[in-house]
Structures are given as structure tokens and as C-alpha cells.
Amino acid sequence: MKINGLPQRTIWFDEEQQAVRIIDQTLLPHHFNILSLNSLDAACHAITTMQVRGAPLIGVTAAFGVYLALRDGETDLSAVCERLLATRPTAVNLRWALECVQAELSPLWGPIQAGVSTVPSIEPTQVRIEAALALALWLADEDAAACSAIGDHGLELLQQAWFTKLTADPTAVSLNILTHCNAGWLATVDWGTALAPIYKAHSKGIPIHVWVDETRPRNQGAFLTAWELQQEGIPHTVIVDNAGGHLMQHGEVDLCIVGSDRTTATGDVCNKIGTYLKALAAFDNDIPFYVALPVSTIDFSLSDGVKEIPIEQRHGSEVSHIQGLNELGELSRVQVMTSHSAVNNFGFDVTPARLVTALITERGVFAPNRESLQVLAPL
Ligand code: MRU
Fold it and tell me: Are residues 180 and 212 both part of a single domain?
């Protein structure tokens, strides 16, 4: 996607500097800062502090983290992957990417990785390092391609929705879509998941307007989604998280599209906290509720999202404090409540499949149930 009209990805390899580069998402939308990741520690730090965030991007960053570790002379691939896996618990793309990396790279260690040899670990070789980098770059390209394909499949749904709306009301001026959190290109390598169909529809001339949930506590909607949409020239309005139900009751929302951090084999969807309440409101108002996700977000080992998906709990200061520009135009953080109340900060919730209209993936649009999703399961 574009920033100030120029194409940009969220993560890339700078050949000249031999560094992995990211956009520091903790400073957006106020500052656009590029950071270099030069070590495993830096990659882990970037994921835990959410300099990079969003399920697909976390996975790709972890793959680059493996490369950085090997480049620094790490030899224990499993230990490196375990460290990366521990950075955030909910998004399954992290595990998926690390499993890909282990499956592809382990053979380069021979029997040592399989634990059947007592031979001391061999020195890291250029071959392993180069293979790790090639794999991370491939995963990044695959993610961008998958998200673009999600956009193409979602576009068909949006074209249909706009046609239906215009047929019923020839004076309609826009297709109003509600989204939660940031499932745009900043959450992936490029295109995004929930926002990819919106970008494609906009470029086809469909007059889209997006209701952007601010998404407390970290405000990914107000900070990131709004900024992305603004960069692409897409009309949007930021609303408080509690406004969606009211807008739906008054016919102001035609459909919802959100992303997912982990989807079960049965179609339950785990996404940013508050997604479930939006799905309930959409269901009550007979409004389609779509979830856009790459197939790597489906955890085929799980059947019951509410019971089985681990929900990240983050630091309470994300609730008690808020970041923004002060009157001097400087980025600052203020406390919005007293220190005397307990605070809880669940990062995600689960929307049961029965509230989801359909899952938009890079391989097509699927009903949220085991029978339909079966075809996507790895053999
Ligand atoms: O905590 P975050 O910002 O990493 O949460 C991100 C989301 O919840 C996204 O909706 C999800 O990762 C889907 S991203 C394409």
C-alpha cells in the first residue's frame, strides 16, 4: 500500500544495511519511524511491545527473527523458535510461521536437531543463514499475495452488497462498512485482511465509507486503521467502541468486516477484544458479519474457540493510560483514571461461528463450519 503516494511494506530486508526494517507502529499516526531489527532480542522486543503487531505480521517478523539469531551465531534452532513463540500467545500465525521455519531449516542441522546425536553442535554455516533469510522473504511475499487474494474474494462480496443497496435505493451514496481494530496492511506485510477488499473496492470505484472502531485500549482503529484509510483516500469516520450497535440500529452499517488472530476448525473467530459485541449487534440487526483471514490463521487442532484459544492479557497501564499529542504537539502519555482501581486488560475475545456470516480467505469464501473448512486443512 502507499504512504504519501509511495509503495510501502510493513517489513523488508535492507540489502545495503543488511538489516531487517520495520515501521514502528507504537508511534503512528503521529510519527512515521523506520526501525532496524539487528538481533533476535530486537525481533522479540518488537513483537512484545507491538512495534509490529497483527497476526500475519507477527508471524513474518518471527521468521526474520530466526534469520537474525542464526546470523548472530545461534545454533539451537528450537530454542530460538521457543523464544519467539513466547512473545505473544493468541495469534496462531506466529506458531504457523515458526513451524514452517523449523520444517524447512531443521534438515540443515542433520541429526543434531532431531536429538539423536551426541556430536557437538556444528558451527553455523552461511547456508543455514541464507536459507533462513530466503524463507523469511518468501513468507513475506506469500503473505502479501494471500492478502491480495483475500481482497479479490472480498471484493466480489462488496460489489454484490453495493449492487443490492443501489437497487433498493438508487439515491444511496455509499456502502458503509464497520471494522474493528486494525486488520489493514499494517497488520500484515501488505494489503491487510479486512481492509484488502475495501482497498480493492475503492479502486474499482465503489463508494466506500468505513466506520472505524477506535479499539481501546491501544486504539489500533483510531491510530492505525484511520491513518491507513486516510493515506489511501478512503472516506472513514472514527467512532467510539460502543457506537456500533447504535449505528446498526439506525441503518448506518451495511456490513462488518474484521480480521482474526485464530480461527478454529469449526469457524469460531478470535479477534481483538470487542469483536464479539459487534458480532452480536450485527446478528441482532441482520447485518452481514464477515471475517477476513489467511488460511494460516486457522488452527485446525481446535474445535471450541471460547474454551480453547489462549487469550492474551496485557499490562493494565494500557487501560489506565492513553497516548497522544499534547498541546505542544509532542507525543505524551496521560493517566485517565486514579491508581486506586483494579484494571483488567484482555486483548482478544472469541466470536462463535454462529454469529459469523462467512470467512473470506485467499482460497475463497467459506461458511464458518467444520464441513466447509475441512478442504483447507493441511493433509
Ligand atoms: O493486538 P494486535 O494489534 O496485534 O491485534 C490485531 C488484531 O486483532 C487484528 O484484527 C488481527 O491480528 C487480524 S490482522 C490481519
Answer: yes
> What amino acid is encoded at 353 in this protein?
A
Instruction: Compute, in angstroms, the gap from residue 245 CA to the centroid of ligand 1.
Output: 21
Position 111 scores a pLDDT of: 56
pTM value > 0.70: yes
Which residues form the domain of 50? Answer: 2-139
Q: What atom in ligand 1 is closest to the CA of residue 271?
A: 8
Residue range 104-111: average pLDDT? 85
Query: What phi and psi, each to the nearest 5 degrees, are found at residue 7?
Result: -65, 140
Q: Is the minimum distance from the CB of 349 to ligand 1 under 6 angstroms? A: no
Give yes or no for residue 179 CB within 6 A of ligand 1: no
CATH number at residue 203: 3.40.50.10470
Calpha distance 79→97 (Å, rounded): 15
Q: 259 and 367 share a domain?
A: yes
User: Among 92, 108, 139, where does a domain finish?
Assistant: 139
Q: Which of 241, 261, 268, 349 is catalytic?
A: 261
Pocket test of ligand 1: the residue of 220, 227, 299, 356 to mutate, having most ligand atoms within 8 Å of its CB, is: 220
- Answer yes or no: do 87 and 44 share one domain: yes
> 118, 139, 160: which is the final residue of a domain?
139
pLDDT digits (tens, 9 = 90+) for 165-209: 999 999 999 999 999 999 999 999 999 999 999 999 999 999 999
Q: What is the mean pLDDT of residues 62-82?
A: 96
Ligand 1, atom 6: closest residue by C-alpha: 54
- Condensed to tens digits (0 to 9), the pLDDT of residues 217-268 reads 999 999 999 999 999 999 999 999 999 999 999 999 999 999 999 999 999 9
* 188 CB within 6 A, ligand 1: yes
Q: Is 261 a catalytic residue?
A: yes
- CB neighbour class for 320 (10 Å; exposed up to 12, middle 13-18, buried from 19): middle
- Percent helix, strand, coil in the chain (nearest 5)? 40, 20, 40
Phi, psi dihedrals of residue 147, rounded to the nearest 5°? -65, -35
CATH number at residue 67: 1.20.120.420
Tell whether ligand 1 has an atom less than 6 A from the beta carbon of residue 200.
Answer: no
Looking at the structure of the chain, the number of domains it has is 2
